[in-house]
Amino acid sequence: MAIKAFLEQRQGHIVQSGIPQCSRPTIPGVMSQRACTYYGARWVLAPVRNSTHIVHAPADCAYYGQNVRKKNYLILSTDMNEKDVIFGAHEKLERCIEEAAKIFPEHSMIFVYSTCTSSQIGEEIKWVVEKVKEKVQKPIIPVEVPGFGGFSQSDGHHIAQKAIISYLSEYCKKESTQPFSVNIIGEYNVAGETRVIKKLLEKIGIEVICSYTGDCDADLMQKSTSAALNLLVCKSSGLLLAQFMRERYSIPFVDVSFYGLSNTVNSLKKISKFFDIEHKVEMVISEEYEKIRDKLEKYKKKIFGKKAIILLGGSRIGFMAGAFKEAGLEICVCGSQFGCNIDYEAARFELPSALFIDDFNCAEIEEILLRIEPDVFIGGTREWYLAHKFGVPFLVFPQETKPYACFEGFLNMCEDLFKEIHAPVWRLI
């Protein structure tokens, strides 16, 4: 009976047409692939340069939050213990903030996180922050992200955006607009992608001031208020910030994507239309495509028609589904850990007949692998070794090798797909 009830609950999350039920709590008892809101906030805030990050929690939370996208970031902890849980640890947090400011005087700002333990006992980190601000003499931004504060890491993305917004509201004034300048919002410089996007935009005469948060610090945040346009590449981790900057600093934003040739070309055309420089873009598009054409065709011939499963985080599944489809893959299953209706609608537009699955778990992944028998599995590191146990080639995303953005990135992606699918090891199975 319990299994029957579970299957009935999951039925709406796995659909062959339309979009699945989403943005809901995980069904109790299911080993979900989701992370907590605290980790979602770390995903957004960890790359901010010249900043101190203090976690008001047991040391485990700091250990969990130090590694983001396979990169270690410095993170400090108040190391709450049993005595702190019983009697409170306001004074301990206050001392930690003051000590951290002395140890890292070169850092421009301090982020203070509250997680499950400190939030459960009612620790008021905002009160502590206000108390020590004058002593520290630098911006201190509270980030309240207990793991139970949302359904998934996606809620942490929103809280992190609000933390950045609070900093901008208090410390960053509107500067005079620089012509032909943009900020990129929701870009995290995975495998050097920010550099590739900047390089492409510079070719059409556009300067990137700040990339939130892949290339970001306090100075760049201040300069970002002078941008003429914001480029929103990830709605889950950037929409609130883009909307705020539009209202506060009168900076409009457009949705763009630099994954896949079609998305990249369409995004360049959107940007060029805004700045009235269409004549430059066509030439750049032609030049960039010519550079990769011969190699790209070679790889696409080898991966064309291969069956694929795509199980990603959430907010970019529409763009990525389009990019992998453009590479020639036949996408049979598309899923997300924390996608919302907008994400699934974008993905469904690209994949009208694929099976969609929300908040997938290991048991369901195993069943899909047995039934579909894909040629390649594209997903996060949690699914990596499971796929290999079933003898299925796996491409990890976000990637750990080379940038996948723009023209050269699309070539890199196709090359990695070719190498994974046609690796000699699979002949032994």
UniProtKB/TrEMBL annotation:
Annotated Nitrogenase/oxidoreductase component domain ranges read: 36-419
| Any one GO molecular-function label of the UniProt entry | oxidoreductase activity
* Pfam name, any one: Oxidored_nitro
What name is this protein filed under? Oxidoreductase/nitrogenase component 1
Which species is this UniProt entry from? Caldicellulosiruptor acetigenus (strain ATCC 700853 / DSM 12137 / I77R1B)
UniProt xrefs under InterPro entries: Nase/OxRdtase_comp1, NifE-like
